[in-house]
Amino acid sequence: MPGPVARDAFADALGRRLRGPCSPGSLDVLRTTAGTLLDAVPADVWCAVMLDPATLLDTGGLHEHGFPQQVMPRLFAIEHADQEGVDNVRALTRRRGTASLLSASMRGRMADSVYYRDVLRPVGLSDELRVLLRDGPRTWGLLVLCRGPGAPPFTAAETALAAAVSAPATAALRRSLLLTGIDRDDVPDAAGLLVVDDALRVRLATATAERWLALIQEAHPPPGRSLPYALGALVQTARTAAPGSQVRSRAIGVTGHWVTLTAWREAGAGTLPGPLGDTDGEGSEGDEVLTVVSLAPTHPRELTALVLDAYGLTPRERQVAQQVLLGRSTAEMSAKLHITEYTVQDHLRKVFDKAGVRSRRDFSGELFRRCYLPKLDDPPLTKDGRMRDDGDGGAQDDG
């Protein structure tokens, strides 16, 4: 097994690649990390997934060399709906380590694993190595490497090397969420709506929903998929949620804008149009239960929480940062948080260092730029108070 020095050197080499002259985007971070790891730990099937740290649902990633499409609905059901299995992503986040090998977790009793029986074995895979991309309590991504019976088993040394990529990859992935920019590209500014059946066929899709879906950062093998895996995971989770409840996740788009996906179940009302791209022309039965998905711009208050998470603040630093955004003085923070003013100043220095700013004004301005500025592009106001650009500079009349 490689010693700590070798593992540290491996992690440092990856960190240098990820800190190149240009700030990589999220998919670039995943691609570089996976490529570096696969050079040392080969795999027959692999994927690299971004996760919403709040829900641990898929929000994009690389799937060109991933699982065959036919097992994905069952994988989503096990992973997100049923949350079964010793190496389920939610179980992994409760452990101290970042890498886990399924055969080791099962102590060789692979046939007892529902994930092995229903996902790996049907497609000829014998074992799976998972690597969490996380810092503290927040998990931002997941690397999955699988081998078939004809390949040598994963070794303890390979598992240790896989664990070593977690820290540099997580740091780079967090940076990418902050630095991929807020640009002025043409993105939707309203909610879109999808209606999906249990076979993940689209029964109804508004044009705005299709535009939002096109922005989600996922790479698939040709000919690709009509629905991102991020949406598939959400739909499968909604299927087992309590009646009347909603399931929500957030994904960052290729433009740097965030989209919130919200899913809930509804009984089919009458007849819906046939699936997009489906030639059978059959409608939905009135008593069929379908999944409705709303795709909309993420609200600024949610973005503020995401950005604070992406900076990697500790719980106390996050509290101090929130007080800064509320305009509190050092004395007010001290009284509110029951800590000394010296401790407040110490936390402020750490917050500013992680955010790359030098003052409270700079920090507030940075959060404003990332969370609110996109909403203020090209006035004037609509009648309900939203900033809007109608293409000709005129105000939108909402009636």
UniProtKB/TrEMBL annotation:
Domain of life: Bacteria
Positions of the UniProt region annotated as Disordered: 375-399
GO BP term (any one): regulation of DNA-templated transcription
One Pfam family it belongs to: GerE
Record's compositionally biased regions (Basic and acidic residues): 375-391
Keyword field: DNA-binding, Transcription, Transcription regulation
Gene3D superfamilies xrefs: 3.30.450.40, Winged helix-like DNA-binding domain superfamily/Winged helix DNA-binding domain (1.10.10.10)
SMART domains (alphabetical): HTH_LUXR (SM00421)
Family annotation (PROSITE patterns): HTH_LUXR_2
InterPro entries with a match to the protein in the record: GAF-like_dom_sf (IPR029016), Sig_transdc_resp-reg_C-effctor (IPR016032), Tscrpt_reg_LuxR_C (IPR000792), WH-like_DNA-bd_sf (IPR036388)
Any GO molecular function: DNA binding
Protein name from the UniProt record: LuxR family transcriptional regulator
